Amino acid sequence: MISNFLRQLPEPNLMPQEEHPLAKFAGVLSDSEARELQKAIAAEFEQVDIDEW
């Protein structure tokens, strides 16, 4: 049943896709740098001050 369904799907478009403009930044940070950045974001931006609302 599944293989019949898969055979009925249209052929994928094999034309080259334009690269996303942010793709050049993928993998720029090391694992430790990414962890540090996540900690900084959590410390600075993921906190809600209920008195500000």
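[next item in queue]
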Amino acid sequence: MKKLTRKEEELMKILWQIREGFVKEIVEFYPNPKPHYNTISSLVRLLEEKGFIGHKTYGNTHQYFPLISKQEYRKSFIKDVVKDYFDNSYKQTVSLFIEEQNLSNEDLNELIELIQSKKQQL
């Protein structure tokens, strides 16, 4: 799966939130100052070409919807980050989050429980 630009991700986050929408509706979900209608229209068409969104046609207008779920994209994105920045080591990745995020004992215990439950499933 291709990595999205920051602007593309921003639009996808809106579509994941609203599930479907016309360009005019999508623009309304942007914070002020809102981007121009034509900018979002171009971005939507680009994302459609990349296979991230689809549309339903209503006369001369299109209602857009995500073809890729937020979870699918997140999983792909995390795999790339782990590969590119952590030498494919999930252990190094989790270690960084533990060190940098100053996780509480409760958070650490939840992580340990999650790991142990996944281990038992294998």
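[queue empty]
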